[in-house]
Specification:
Blueprint: H1 2-33, H2 39-74, H3 80-107, H4 115-121, H5 123-138
The chain binds protoporphyrin IX containing FE.
């Protein structure tokens, strides 16, 4: 029973986290289309900060906490599919940290990447989600 409640919570916060991971790079693309120093740019800086503070950081933390609790409850630490999933989730977490850094740079007026590059980076969470779903449901190894 505890396992099922943990899993329901885990999947819910995974959805919140992934929604934020899909939104933020989109925000960056629109942000970079705004005139530097304009009121529109200020609005994007504010939206990015809120998305990180209200959705991304809390959802990432709760997803990790419930995911690790699930792993303990089913003894997943010895299973190869779980090692693969952990590797993928670490990549997603690093991506989250990188995006927070990029948002901080944008807020300082530094636009390090072109819109095209940002659009390509936007594929990272999608690809990771497909692979994670296969690991956790099919458990191919
Ligand atoms: C943050 C670290 C994470 C840890 C430690 C973790 C760990 C786990 C564990 C141990 C389970 C139970 C698997 C089972 O009962 O067979 C699980 C279930 C699940 N996880 Fe995660 N997970 C994490 C992040 C994620 C992410 C980022 C996603 C999606 C992108 C995800 C998607 C799922 C799904 C869909 C299930 C339910 C699978 C089922 O139907 O049984 N998890 N997770």
């Amino acid at each position: 029973m505890t396992y099922l409640w943990l899993k329901a919570g885990h999947v819910t916060f995974v959805i919140f986290w992934m929604a934020g991971l899909f939104m933020l790079p989109r925000f960056f693309v629109y942000h970079q289309e705004a005139e530097p120093g304009s009121a529109e740019e200020a609005r994007w800086i504010d939206r990015e900060r809120r998305l990180l503070r209200i959705i991304l950081w809390p959802a990432m933390g709760v997803t990790w906490a419930l995911g690790l609790a699930l792993a303990f409850s089913i003894g997943a630490f010895t299973q190869p599919w779980f090692h693969a999933k952990l590797g993928l989730v670490l990549i997603l977490s690093a991506y989250n940290v990188w995006m927070a850094g990029y948002a901080a740079d944008l807020a300082q007026g530094r636009r390090r990447l072109e819109g095209k590059r940002l659009r390509i980076l936007n594929e990272v969470p999608g690809i990771a989600t497909v692979l994670i779903a296969i690991m956790v449901i099919v458990k191919p190894f």
